[in-house]
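Form 7-S
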Amino acid sequence: MVINSLEFLLFVAVTVIAYKMIPKKAKWLVLLLASYLFYFLNSTYMTIAIIMTTISVYYIALKMKQINERVTVEIKGVENKEQKKKYKKQAKTKQKWIVTIGILFNLGILVILKYSGFIGENINSLFHILHINIELPIAKFILPIGISYYTLQAISYIVDVYRGKIEADKNLGRVALFLVFFPQVVQGPIGRYNSLANSLYEPHAITYDNVTNGTQLMLWGYFKKMVIADRIAMYANEVFTNYTAYSGPIIIFGMMAYTIQIYAEFSGGIDIIRGVAECFGIHLSENFERPFFSKSIDEFWRRWNITLGTWLKDYVFYPVSLSKASIKLTESARKIFKKSYLSKIIPIAFSLLCVWVSNGIWHGSGIKYLVYGLYYYTIMILGKLIEPLGNKIIAIFKINTKAWSYRFWQMLRTGGLVCIGMTIFRAENLQTAFDMLKSILHPHNLERLFNGQAFLLGGIKGEDIVILMVSMIVLLGVSVYQEKGKSVRNWLKEQNLIFRWFVFYMIIFAIILFGVYGPGYHVQSFIYGQF
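Output:
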């Protein structure tokens, strides 16, 4: 049941009606039951995985709470400060072991289900190279939907309890709903317990404003997914599938097409998810802030998949930065490079390496995903290393960094680097990605570009080009308006009722008339839904 299907819309409508009719105290049960039903319909017996995760983090968090309560009682009558510190240290050590076990257990489920096949294949390859006559059986599992998303949420919950940021929740239902909330579990955004759990659990009124605001956001998401992403996907799929038949500009167009596709699809999917949640009066985190207006790769990743980026920052970057290994590295860098720029870069480089290795591995079980993460890591580190030189060049040539032309160049450069990264992500394997990038430098059959055939690939027709151009102009216009700090929703609310509904109906008709669906067309799953 993908979120761009009629079945999903019917499921949402029935759940909204049930939520509206049920008494306040039991409203959260409607969401919980609907979420588990949704999960079971999509993952059947693999629902056991999310149940195991839920029960494990629930009891682990409670165990840490019990240790805190016990040590509080133990030190109550103790006057010796050193003895108090000893009790607290012992309690913290116990909690550290418990939270470590919890993290390893849940990562273990993820690794077994998502990565065991990849690991087994590589071990067998190694045995073959070493002439060891052993072949491990390759396990193949049906991956539960959203396992990478809810696993990160589960880990953040127990780590936050360990850090004392939140208290362990005694309500198992609240913990379960936080992990399995049906719109969010598909492809994020990745939530935090302190900002989301109570909002899911508390009763909300199904109001006209909630439903209309939610529906508006869903329509905008469906527009991006069905009119733009699914249409331009035909071109991207053709180029990436039959890349040996193309070169030069056509490969570049294919790379750009896929980059547009994944943005329109992923951001559109998040809009649909956030819109569904708003119908219930629940507000999920933003996950995109117009990333293609970014002037650097660093900024791009602060705007793209925001909740994943902040999760990696809080639970990978900072812990690694504060680790003993990182502290020793910092001290060594200062001794060797004194107060030079490198003494600051090296410790950051180590922490960032851990972040980007984690980012790459999170996206998939293949070497190309690791390279995908390391690609962005390399660009970021190189950017930091040459930053002083860049600043000197700007000063020498008196370049106006605030001029629109310079900012446009920065956005164009960033967009080009992102297209290369997305090519690594989309290609069948690393060799395919490298072959495609090399073929750009050796163009052939350029007559396709001049006779227009280069734009009509994968079933794309002339009218599709027109629809894509108009749709992307609309998307760009909305993005520019939002980039100025303005809200399209608020602007629409200020307009008269007739104009407001005219805009809504135009989006609906655009989806119905120009959306890619119908006989012979299989509803396309979301790319990020596989994680």
